[in-house]
Amino acid sequence: MPQPIRVLLVDDQPLLRTGFRMILEAESGIAVVGESGDGEAAVSHTRALQPDVVLMDIRMPHMDGVQATRAITGSTRETPPRVLVLTTFDLDEYVVEALRAGASGFLLKDVPADQLVAAIRTVASGDSVVAPNITRRLLDMFAARLPASNAPVPEGLEHLTSREREVLIMVARGMSNAEIATELVVSETTVKTHVGNLLTKLDLRDRVQAAIYAYESGLVTPGSL
Q1: Which residues of the chain have pLDDT under 70?
Q2: Given 3.30.70.1450, 1.10.10.10, 2.60.40.10, 3.40.50.1220, which CATH number is that of 157-216?
Q3: Which of 222, 194, 198 lies closest to 210, judged by CA?
């Protein structure tokens, strides 16, 4: 039998943690290994419990979800846990910073149970779960006015082929692999290969970070797509 997906719940509201635990513990293949009430505890519990996925609230005392996400995804583990950000508002500007910090996507706190479960499975498999239309809305609304990242924009666009650059622009538009395949009249397998190649060349974790990179590198600009 495959090992269950180990999940750490992080939220400063105990009732929400209880609700998420009840949903997840009813699912086969998912195990809730712990709960944390703030960012500092989340970082400590992640080291101790070694979860595969951290369900992370944004606004918490002591250390917020952005800082905790940065600490967790930058850990020395060979494969750091994946972080799913939780937010009350779908246009919370902190979410963009959390994605920059290494989160694999975000969910609204009122997400339906089946979507929560599916998102955790998707993230655990190595993909991201930010809905395409929300990815674009977030980037369009906040990329122009959020403080720039302290790290310089990574070089690498010159290493992409023209087709890989084209695919990167479509990823920034929030298009799925199937939609890109239809647009380019190629197979989904070919699109996956292009996405994998550009992620490797740009040293990016997933398509969410690829979308952010496309904006921060100047390949696309807010409102231009």
Answers
A1: 1, 75-77, 89-93, 130-155, 221-225
A2: 1.10.10.10
A3: 198
